[in-house]
Amino acid sequence: MIVRFVSMVCAFTISLSLAEAAPKTAVFPFELSVPALHPDDLMFGTTIKAEEQERLKIVTKELRALLAATGQYEVADLTPLEKDIEDAAPLHKCNGCETELAKKAGVELAVLPMLEKSSDTLLNMSIGVLDVASGRILKTAMVVIQGNTEESWIRAVRWLVKRKFTETKKE
């Protein structure tokens, strides 16, 4: 009788933990858009600086770690798709190729992070979460960054995850 009761409790506990498993999630690399305001207006150029390229890698790594740490996302390893992602980049201009890449990764959700440079010291950071099966955007959040430094970018991604991507469960 006791053995049967313990077995039922264990089975129930295991089924609860499986039901609450975090969705497998592809966190794509941050992209930086540097639009020219006008073809003749190149006050800060339309190229991405070497230090900005490095910062993109740093904030992508930070975003992946932060989302995984919430326990609400099982961050997938996208290493096998690096070449495909690079070929499709920029994802924000590829007309939905991120959905196909996410399906290839075998995930339920896709996180699409983006930075848009408005000037040399003013940027917008946005993060969207896409349901891969339906193609629906589930969540978006944005923050303005004043300062084009590694510290300001990291602070922005931390703020977004803490304030917009961490759900508190009510008991």
Explain this structure to me?
The model is unreliable at 8-18 (pLDDT under 50). The protein is α/β, with parallel strands linked by helices. It has 5 helices and 6 strands, in the order H-E-E-H-E-H-H-E-E-E-H.
Features:
single chain; 171 residues; alpha/beta; Rossmann fold; six-stranded mixed β-sheet; 5 helices; 6 strands; 41% helix
**Biggest sheet features:** 6 strands, mixed
Shape: globular
User: What is the class in the CATH system?
Assistant: Alpha Beta
| Global structural class | alpha/beta
CATH architecture: 3-Layer(aba) Sandwich
By CATH, the topology is Rossmann fold
Q: State the order of secondary-structure elements, H for helix, E for strand.
A: HEEHEHHEEEH
State the domain count: 1
Separation of termini? 32 Å
Estimated radius of gyration: 20 Å
What helical percentage do the residues reach? 40-55%
Query: Helix tally?
Result: 5
Beta-strand content: 15-25%
In the predicted model, the low-confidence regions spanning at least 5 consecutive residues are 8-18
- According to CATH, the homologous superfamily is ABC-type transport auxiliary lipoprotein component
The average pLDDT score comes to: 86
Secondary structure: number of strands:
6
Brief rundown of the structure:
Helices cover 41% and strands 22% of the residues. It is an alpha/beta fold.
Question: Secondary structure elements and their pairing?
Answer:
Elements: H1 2-19, E1 24-27, E2 31-33, H2 50-70, E3 74-75, H3 82-88, H4 97-105, E4 109-117, E5 122-131, E6 137-146, H5 150-164
Parallel strand pairs: 1-3, 1-4, 2-4
Antiparallel strand pairs: 4-5, 5-6
